[in-house]
Amino acid sequence: MNIEIQHRKARRLSAIALSEIVQISEKARALKAQGRDILALSTGEPDFPTPPEVIEAAHRAALEGQTGYPPTAGTPTLRARVAAKHGVAPEETLISTGAKQVIANAMLATLDPGDEVIIPAPFWTSYADIVRMAEGVPIVLPCGMAQGFKLGPEALEAALTARTRWVMLNSPSNPSGAVYSAGEFSALGKVLERHPQVWVLSDEIYEHLSYVPFTTFPEAAPALRERTLVVNGVSKAWSMTGWRIGWGVGPAALIRDMTVVQGQVTSGACSISQAAACAALDMGPEILSERLADFLARRDLVVAGLDALPGIACPEPGGAFYAFPDIGACLGNRHGMATDTEFCAWLLDTSGLAVVPGSAFGMPGHFRLSFAYSRAQIADGLSRLETALGALPA
Fold first, then answer.
1. Which tens digit of pLDDT belongs to each residue from 285-322?
2. How many helices (H) and strands (E) does the chain have?
3. What is the value of pTM for the model shown?
């Protein structure tokens, strides 16, 4: 007797797919394996190496036997370092396997089916999907180029309902590079003071990659400190993406609930990586300043290069290492491309340049180009884009 085996996918996955960034990167990798000349400027991974001091600290930790199960919420040493950085008590910190897990822990620990989470667009692709996995409802608020890609207090007030549980903010932003000023954060905080059921998740993973003054949300809105979760980590500034260490800083009760979630998913983050993260936080500011200056020079190269191309308008990002230009003038029947997704597919097929469509970030009509690559690769990418655009009908 033949019995057909059927795979049953959970309902919570019905609106979730593999990240479009990952899909594009994998397609670019496959084309390169076929012998195509492919240049991917699609991922947010710094091209600097992990600092030697960090690698040495990890080696010492391994040799010293720090290879057992770590505490679920993080090693006391790293929690103390993170607490000192943020001016809180260690019990108000949670160390996780990357900042993404911090966000997932928070949503799984606090959302019930139907609860709403306000997400300004453009937004990092995982935000909405994590909310959906936690059976929440992402409420996406478009914040276009005319608004500096930032949420304003009036739009926030209009979107709040009795079901709103969180507002997700990201400064500096992926993908736009937008940075909220202290005044802009304060104005949002004033609105939320009138809605005590709403918490703030402030993703500050690009804190040390800000070309304008950086403000952490709790400093700008101190009245909301007891319902704010700050998300941060070592991945971007210290080039430690593969070490997978992020952290959350928030009220102790929330941290305890998030630790319960983490305890049933991964338990504690890698002990060796936590030792490495301690070493990163102990380093002086010189390495961060040097890398910031290098990224600033790359930013200026990218913005000038994109702005010089026909049909493209590129605002200057205030932080992170992404440009998010408007390509609306390149779309339409005349060019045979109706969407930014079609534009990016055409660009990859014709010029071998991989970038990510803005629709992946909730903001159609744009694309994201990462300048976390060498200047030679950036120059090559701009040249490929110029050649491709030159082939379009005037």
1. 999 999 999 999 999 999 999 999 999 999 999 999 99
2. 13, 12
3. 0.95
pLDDT at 1: 60
Per the structure block, which two tokens stand in for 67?
């290879």
Q: Give CA–CA dist 315/389, Å, rounded.
A: 19
Closest listed residue to residue 130, CA positions, set 160, 163, 105: 105
- The string of DSSP codes covering 319-355 is BTTEE--B-GGG-BTTTTB-SHHHHHHHHHHHH-EE-
In degrees and rounded to multiples of 5, residue 166 shows phi and psi of -140, 155
Strand order in the sheet with 228-233: 93-96, 246-249, 228-233, 199-203, 164-170, 116-121, 137-142
Collect all residues with Cβ–Cβ distance below 8 Å to 229 and sequence separation of at least 6: 102, 106, 199, 200, 201, 202, 248, 249, 250, 254
Q: How far is 296 from 174, CA to CA, in rounded Å?
A: 16
Using CA of residue 183, residue 184, residue 189, residue 190, what is the dihedral sign?
positive
Q: Which residues pair with 356 in a beta bridge?
A: 368
Quick one: tokens of 360?
């992946």
